[in-house]
Amino acid sequence: MSAKYEKCAFVIERDLAAGLAMNTVAALSMSVGRFVEGIVGDAVKDADGQAHTGVTAIPLPILKGEATDLRDIVLKAADLPDVFVVDFTAVAQSSRSYDEYTRRTAELATADLPYIGVAVCGSKSAVNKLTGSLPLYR
């Protein structure tokens, strides 16, 4: 991805157990970090001169929503050219290998996938349009 994004929101299915929710955010974050150029800032030095690896340079709110909210975000974002989306499904989380995940996902239509997490990156207005009505994950 070469676009410059201003915001990236993570939406997690509201009924996931805490450990599964954290795993979902971690999985989504790995993909966002890999595919969204410039999201991670440069290393910074402390007063002792010790370098600290760069962290995210833009806001990353963690929100919660119903499974239908996640599906709707995925479907609506497909029509927005300047929005980057990573989705995570119960299929991915329950698969024992990437091959199993690939095979099982191929059996389901986009609208039928059991979404448990979605990361949406883009302009503030685009991300807010897709996620603005959802509450913070607490």
Features:
alpha+beta, 5 helices, Bit1, about 140 residues, single chain, about 20% strand, Pep_tRNA_hydro_II_dom_sf
Give the gist of this structure.
The chain is α+β, with helices and mostly antiparallel strands. Helices cover 36% and strands 21% of the residues.
What's the layout of helices and strands?
Elements: E1 7-13, H1 18-35, E2 44-45, E3 51-52, E4 62-65, H2 67-77, E5 84-89, H3 90-94, H4 98-105, E6 115-122, H5 124-131
Quote the average pLDDT.
Answer: 94
Give, in spatial order, the strands making up the sheet with the most strands.
Answer: 4-1-6-5
Quantity of strands, as a count: 6
| Class from helix and strand fractions | alpha+beta
Contiguous uncertain segments of 5+ residues? none
Report the order of strands and helices.
Answer: EHEEEHEHHEH
Describe the structure.
There is one protein chain. It is built from five helices and six strands; from the N terminus they run E-H-E-E-E-H-E-H-H-E-H. The strands form two sheets. Strands 4-1-6-5 form a four-stranded mixed sheet, sandwiched between helices. Strands 2-3 form a two-stranded antiparallel ribbon. The chain has a single domain, classed as Bit1 (3-Layer(aba) Sandwich), CATH 3.40.1490.10. The model has no long low-confidence stretch (mean pLDDT 94). The chain is globular. The protein has helices spanning 18-35, 67-77, 90-94, 98-105, 124-131; strands spanning 7-13, 44-45, 51-52, 62-65, 84-89, 115-122. Helices cover 36% and strands 21% of the residues. The longest helix has 18 residues, at 18-35. With 138 residues, it is an alpha+beta fold. It comes from Streptomyces venetus. This is DUF2000 domain-containing protein. InterPro entries: DUF2000, Pep_tRNA_hydro_II_dom_sf, UCP033763. Pfam families: DUF2000.
